[in-house]
C-alpha cells in the first residue's frame, strides 16, 4: 500500500488547487490564497514520502506535474485575474474603447498559467534539474501571488491596498515573474539530501534570513522572501559563473 501514499498526497494537492479556483470564483480571495499554501505543503510532502518510502512511479511523476499546473498555474492565475479586476474598479476610466482596454489588462493574468505550463514541461524533460532549478519554480511563483490577498485581508490599510492594487506595480511583477519561470537562470533547491552545514550552506543561510523576515514582518514577509530567493539565487549563479 505504501506506493499509493505519495499519489494520495498529490491528489490532495489537486483538490487544494481546485478549491482555490472555486474560492476565487466565489469572491473569497483570502481562502483561495490559503489553499494554494496548502497545495504547496502537499507538494512538498508527496516528494518527501516518495523518497522516504522509495515509492517512485511514472504515474506519480505525471500526476505531480498535472497537480502543479492546477495549483501553481491556474489557481494563482485566477487570484491575479481578480486583483487586476479590482485595480480596474478603483480606476476612473473615461475614454473610448474602454472594454478593449479592460480585456487587455485582464488577459495579462493568462501569462501565469501559460508560463507555468512551459516551466513544468521543460522541467519534465530536463535531466539537469535534479539538485537545482533552471528558472523560478512554480510553487515559489504561486506562493508569491497567494500571499497578496491574504496580506490585504490582514493589513487592511490604504498603503497596502495602494501598492498591491496598483496596475503600475502589479503588471510589471506579472511580466517579470512569468519571464523568470521560463528563464534559464539557476535557482537553488530547498531539498535536503543531507543535513550537514557545509553542503547546505546556501539553504541554511536562506532559511535563517527567511525566519528573520517572518519575525519582523510576519505574514507580510512572504513576497519579500520570494524576492530574496530570486536575488540570492541570481547572486550565487553569478559568483559560480
SSE diagram, text form:
Elements: H1 5-26, H2 29-53, H3 58-90, H4 98-107, H5 111-125, E1 132-134, H6 138-154, H7 158-164, H8 167-182, E2 186-188, H9 201-217, H10 221-240
Antiparallel strand pairs: 1-2
Would you give an account of this structure?
The chain is mainly alpha-helical. Helices cover 76% and strands 2% of the residues. The chain contains 10 helices and 2 strands. The chain starts with a helix and ends with a helix. The model has no long low-confidence stretch (mean pLDDT 86).
Architecture in CATH?
A: Up-down Bundle
Question: Span from first to last CA?
Answer: 45 Å
Which CATH first-tier class would you pick? Mainly Alpha
Number of separate helices: 10
Q: By helix and strand content, what is the structural category?
A: mainly alpha
Which strand order does the major sheet show?
1-2
Q: How many strands, what sense, and barrel or not for the largest sheet?
A: 2 strands, antiparallel
Q: Output the radius of gyration.
A: 18 Å
- Beta-strand content: under 5%
Instruction: Tell the overall outline.
Output: globular
Amino acid at each position: 500500500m505504501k506506493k499509493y501514499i505519495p499519489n494520495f498526497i498529490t491528489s490532495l494537492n489537486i483538490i487544494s488547487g481546485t478549491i482555490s479556483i472555486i474560492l476565487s470564483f466565489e469572491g473569497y480571495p483570502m481562502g483561495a490564497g490559503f489553499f494554494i499554501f496548502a497545495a504547496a505543503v502537499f507538494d512538498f510532502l508527496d516528494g518527501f514520502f516518495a523518497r522516504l518510502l522509495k515509492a517512485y512511479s511514472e504515474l506519480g511523476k505525471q500526476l505531480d506535474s498535472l497537480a502543479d499546473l492546477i495549483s501553481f498555474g491556474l489557481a494563482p492565475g485566477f487570484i491575479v485575474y481578480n486583483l487586476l479586476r479590482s485595480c480596474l474598479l478603483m480606476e476612473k476610466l473615461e475614454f473610448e474603447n474602454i472594454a478593449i482596454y479592460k480585456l487587455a489588462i485582464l488577459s495579462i493574468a493568462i501569462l501565469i498559467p501559460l508560463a507555468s505550463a512551459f516551466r513544468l514541461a521543460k522541467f519534465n524533460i530536463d535531466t539537469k534539474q535534479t539538485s537545482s532549478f533552471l528558472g523560478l519554480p512554480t510553487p515559489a511563483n504561486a506562493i508569491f501571488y497567494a500571499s497578496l490577498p491574504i496580506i490585504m485581508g490582514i493589513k487592511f490599510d490604504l498603503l497596502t491596498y495602494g501598492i498591491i492594487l496598483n496596475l503600475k506595480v502589479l503588471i510589471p511583477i506579472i511580466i517579470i515573474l512569468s519571464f523568470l519561470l521560463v528563464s534559464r537562470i539557476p535557482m537553488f533547491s530547498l531539498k535536503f539530501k543531507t543535513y550537514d552545514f557545509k553542503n547546505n550552506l546556501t539553504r541554511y543561510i536562506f532559511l535563517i534570513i527567511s525566519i528573520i523576515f517572518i519575525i519582523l514582518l510576519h505574514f507580510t514577509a512572504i513576497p519579500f522572501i520570494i524576492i530574496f530567493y530570486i536575488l540570492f539565487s541570481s547572486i550565487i549563479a553569478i559568483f559560480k559563473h
